[in-house]
Amino acid sequence: MTKDASTAISAGLLEEAGVAHGFFTRAGGVSTGLYASLNGGVGSRDDPDAVAENRRRMAAHLGVAPTHFLVPYQIHSPDAVIVTEPFSERPRCDALATNVPGLGLGVTGADCGIVLFADASAGVIGAAHAGWKGALTGVLEATLAAMETLGANRASTIAVLGPTIGRESYEVGPEFYARFVELDEEYAAFFTPSSGEGRFMFDLPGFIGLRLGRAGVGRFEDLALDTYADADRFYSYRRSVHRQEADYGRLVAAIALV
Hints:
Layout: E1 2-4, E2 8-11, H1 12-17, E3 20-24, H2 48-62, E4 69-70, E5 80-82, E6 95-98, E7 104-109, E8 113-119, E9 124-130, H3 132-137, H4 139-149, E10 158-161, E11 171-172, H5 174-183, E12 191-193, E13 200-202, H6 204-215, E14 219-222, H7 237-242, E15 251-256
């Protein structure tokens, strides 16, 4: 079950755990045009002051200081970094973990999976950006490993997948399919033939769920929200390409111990 607000969507599992969090939509910010309105992407060509204000609002939603709202420099890697204090230079990685109250961990996405983790009993949280490449190469498992270093237990860890491009919206080519199936034939279950000859529809949320299950996460929740299909609430890189738009905003998922 989820509670849907205009600015941020909350997840039932994380609410039960009593962890401050939000899967932010594109509503409730100050950006305009293509970025309207809660664009959290410093890598976009949006007004930097507008992005800073949007992130300040996200930090306030979590109950942390803007200086303690931490988002990495994402590079579609399998790398997770433990943070214990605010950083001045963003680490180049795709996941963060901490056990320090007052730090807000965030990741951005605009079709890629944005996943929040918590072991409330251990007081450890994490956030991961999992596009197809990161999910395939191990960013989810790396996040859990980083959390374990801080005292978390996988069996008591919950993971929630936020707004992500859905199977019905994600068409890929034969080389993409081959890359997955060459690694594990079971991955074929996440591909269905599309109307395009030799092409497939890829279930990224389902694949993320499989990887988390294999990694031993205690409970998993997929909010089942398709970024591509819901232009009113979510940014989508793929939709921007199909519409031939010049740029696109970034959604943010964030979590904090407060």
